[in-house]
Amino acid sequence: MNYQIVTDTQTLAQACEQARQKEAVMLDTEFVRTRTFFPQLGLVQMYDGELLSLIDTTVIDDVTPIVQLLQDTSVLKVLHACGEDIEVFQHHFQSVPTPMVDTQVMAAFLGHGLSTGFATLVNEYLSVALDKSEARTDWLARPLTPKQLDYAAADVFYLQPLFDKLQASLKESGYWQNAMQESELQVSKRIRHHEPEKAYLDIKGAWQLSPKQLSVLKPLATWRYETALRKDLALNFVFKEVDLLAVARFNLTSARDMEREQCDVRSVRRYSAVIANIVRKAQSTPEAEWPQKIDRLVDLPNYKQTFKSLKDEVNKVVKDSHLAPEFLASKKQVNQLISWVWRKNMAPESTPDLMQGWRKPLLGERLLKKLN
After folding, report:
1. Fewer CB atoms near the end CB (10 Å): N or C, the chain?
2. Which letter does DSSP use for residue 57 in this model?
3. Signal peptide location in the record (predicted)?
């Protein structure tokens, strides 16, 4: 397995130009994300079937050639379990790979579990046992050892023959276009749209709060999100979610009160004054401006029997399609459909997964009839 280490824009441009002459290019990223909001990129791996490049983005000033490759619609980009890679590309290159197919999704259409690992598939399809001992590497450290570089290179070197085999099977079974559609759906879900003012809706346990308490939680969650973005800190390293809930629930306005409720001491010392100001200001919010109480689908009448009848329908389609039930229609996706119909939220951007792409004719329309 031969590869080149790319550390300058000229070599990068040549490698990307060669890759753009191919029908498909294999991509992967190595990054670190421990305390930061955004993933910190260490390497981009690229293999076009001939040339394998390990691109050290930490030392390259101009990464335009990667952006051009990502945006080149004549070249299919192939990744495995692309979720976090999409965030990496969006944050570091302000682009996502288009078009893109995910070999994990491809495998799911062939009856594999929804989150089958790369090493498992390589072992099954190529009879190669990958060494995963370098998975926990600090990819920002330099120099990287030969073993670490080999590990990174293997992730795209074996992706090519794996992709070829999966694609042949999908074309034979008629699922190839479905796999492309599903991969695009995965990309659209991972593109982050920052809406700090809606951050309170993502806080677990927010449904337990009254509208008055939510009027405190909402600006607190907005502040935490904006601080996390500005400082590039993971949300819980700014202020823990459970602590934010306690502040909103009990209207805590002093460091002593926060510590008494067992809020993280370091965060309290750093931010208690800011938080106290937000709480005091929120306390004067007019009732007409309080957020609505957050209704949980599971608490609505008839939910349990409705969910069961839809799941029964899913299981009928599973028998005919041989797709895993969690892949065809996960609990979250079924709930998304129920919520869409019951709450009459028909805005195009809220269209549930089951009412778009390959799922709609296969299953979605059947479920919609049952709901109506």
Report:
1. C
2. T
3. none
Q: CA angle, 42 as apex, 41 and 46 as ends, to 5°?
A: 95
Cβ atoms of residues 76 and 65 within 8 Å: no
pTM above 0.90, yes or no: yes
Cis status of the peptide bond prior to 39, with omega within 30 of 0: no
Mean pLDDT over residues 204-233, rounded?
98
Q: Dig out the tokens for 327 from the structure.
A: 């892949």
Q: Which residue has the tokens 């309080």?
A: 290
For 356, residues 6+ apart whose C-beta sits below 8 A from its C-beta are: 185, 364
| Nearest alpha carbon to residue 258 among 231, 285, 240, 237 | 240
Residue whose pair of structure tokens reads 């109480």 in the numeric block: 293
- Count of helices and strands (H, E) across the chain: 18, 6
- Element containing residue 27 per DSSP (H, E): strand 24-32
How many CB atoms lie under 10 A from the CB of residue 147? 12
Q: CB of 79 within 8 A of CB of 103?
A: yes
Task: Give 3-state DSSP helix, strand, coil % of the chain, rounded to 5.
Answer: 60, 10, 35
Q: Mind listing the domains of the chain with CATH numbers?
A: 4-190 (3.30.420.10), 196-289 (1.10.150.80), 297-371 (1.10.150.80)
Cβ atoms within 10 Å, residue 181: 16
Q: Which residues have a catalytic role annotated?
A: 28, 30, 85, 151, 155
Show the tokens assigned to 153: 């290179």
Tokens for 167, please give them.
Answer: 């694609």
Q: How confident is the model at residue 18 (pLDDT cuts 50, 70, 90)?
A: very high
Q: Residue 322 pLDDT > 90, yes or no?
A: no
Please give the mean pLDDT across all residues of the chain: 97
Contact at 8 Å (CB) between 107 and 324? no
What residue type is 264 in one-letter code? D
Rounded Cα–Cα distance for residues 223 and 244 (Å): 11
- Phi, psi (deg, nearest 5) at residue 298: -65, -20
Q: How confident is the model at residue 205 (pLDDT cuts 50, 70, 90)?
A: very high
